[in-house]
Design a protein that fits this description.
- The chain is of the alpha/beta class and 349 residues long.
- The protein has 2 domains: 6-161 and 299-348, Quinone Oxidoreductase, Chain A, domain 1, CATH 3.90.180.10; 173-295, Rossmann fold.
- It is built from 10 helices and 18 strands.
- The protein has helices at residues 47-54, 152-156, 158-171, 188-199, 213-218, 231-238, 253-258, 284-287, 301-313, 329-338; strands at residues 6-12, 21-27, 35-44, 77-78, 82-90, 102-105, 108-110, 119-122, 134-138, 142-144, 179-182, 203-208, 223-226, 243-248, 262-270, 292-295, 320-325, 344-348.
- The strands form 4 sheets. Strands 3, 5, 6, 9, 10, 17 and 18 form a 7-stranded mixed sheet that branches.
- The chain is globular.
- The relative contact order is 0.16.
- The mean pLDDT is 94.
Length: 349
């Protein structure tokens, strides 16, 4: 099947609400040297799609400034970080055997070429993403998962949510037998944290709410705590000796409440601010107990390779909450923003 000259794509033309999304007919990008062209089978949604569209990331010294993930967005920008599909063409200096392979794209733009590089950009923010029928990516970031038994929807759910989760777990040095607290456990990253932490042999305390509690328990949590009740009391009851690691996408008041509940040498890993970015805590609880407060953004290339190994073996099973066609991107993002779902929302170009 040949590659057409044009394709449908959903892009943002400015920061704003769902009305900032537009469907457009654009030229199919040609893979440059070192790149592959992927026909998108599924693209998963993430909170970063909402925050990039809204310009909600702020800037150093100006937390209220409208900004993309790492600075100003070059509009128009095709959104979408999480892509599963098949390679249909490659540029110069790329092994042609990649064509036809089923792949997942690592969406990170890294600061160096090394295995432990830090992400400094993201597909769908710093470069065009997968809210489209085709997308280009560096061939070294295109991972062959042809043999994976996971569906395209499940594979598309992995890069940002599970990559972020694995990055948090690796940076927090979570070990089997340790007790871990997972906040926001019903979201994409939260469910990923529960599944991967459980697979590592940790005892998982998951924080969620209402009708989502059973689904979080089914995902592998040993104890599910209701965020509508006194969180500190629930943690002390479930883990009277304290927790070893907190994997937190909520932040806000949870940090000040939870830090004193860490064991000696505990690690609190933060990769989100759903509960607020302005945090206050007693710093004495930090240094007197050798506690570490760790910021974690996405994953390194090494983390992503570990994630793809899990995908090929189907050691993790992403939960799909809903699917939408590409021309309903605005409705899909509105569904994501309501936070009434459990698992991942996926679109099909």
């Amino acid at each position: 099947m040949g590659v057409p000259e044009t394709m449908r794509a959903v892009r943002i033309v400015e920061h704003g609400g769902p009305e900032a999304l537009e469907m457009a007919e654009v030229t199919v990008p040609a893979p440059r040297a070192g790149e592959a062209l992927v026909r998108v089978a599924a693209v998963a949604l993430n909170n970063t799609d909402l925050w990039t569209r809204e310009g909600a990331y702020g800037r150093p010294g100006d937390p209220e400034a409208r900004s993309g993930w790492r600075g100003p967005i070059d509009f128009p920008r095709i959104q979408g970080a999480d892509v599963a599909g098949r390679v249909v063409a490659v540029g110069a200096d790329v092994d042609g055997s990649l064509v036809g392979r089923r792949v997942v794209v690592d969406p990170a733009v890294y600061d160096t070429d090394g295995p432990d590089a830090n992400p400094v950009g993201l597909m769908g923010s710093e470069r065009d993403g997968g809210y489209a029928e085709y997308v280009t990516a560096p061939a070294e970031r295109v991972h062959d998962v042809t043999e994976s038994p996971l569906t395209d929807d499940q594979l598309a759910s992995l890069p940002t949510a599970y990559g972020t989760a694995l990055g948090m777990i690796e940076r927090g040095r979570l070990r089997g037998g340790e007790t871990v607290l997972v906040s926001g456990a019903s979201g994409g990253v939260g469910l990923a944290l529960v599944q991967i932490a459980r697979a590592r042999g940790a005892r998982v305390l998951a924080l969620s709410s209402g009708s989502k509690l059973d689904t979080v328990r089914d995902a592998g949590a040993h104890e599910v705590l209701d965020r509508a009740r006194d969180i500190g009391e629930q943690i002390r009851t479930a883990a009277p000796d304290g927790i070893d690691v907190a994997l937190d996408v909520v932040a806000g008041d949870l940090v000040s409440e939870g830090l004193p509940l860490l064991r000696e040498g505990g690690r609190w890993v933060i990769a989100g601010a759903l509960g607020g970015y302005d945090v206050a805590f007693d710093v004495r609880r930090l240094y007197l107990h050798n506690v570490q407060l760790i910021g974690s953004t996405m994953h390194t290339p090494t983390h992503f390779r570990l994630l793809m190994d899990l995908a090929r073996r189907a050691d993790i099973q992403p939960v799909i909450a809903a699917t939408f066609p590409l021309d309903q991107a605005a409705q899909a993002q509105e569904e994501l923003a309501r936070r009434c779902h459990v698992g991942k929302i996926v679109m099909h170009p």
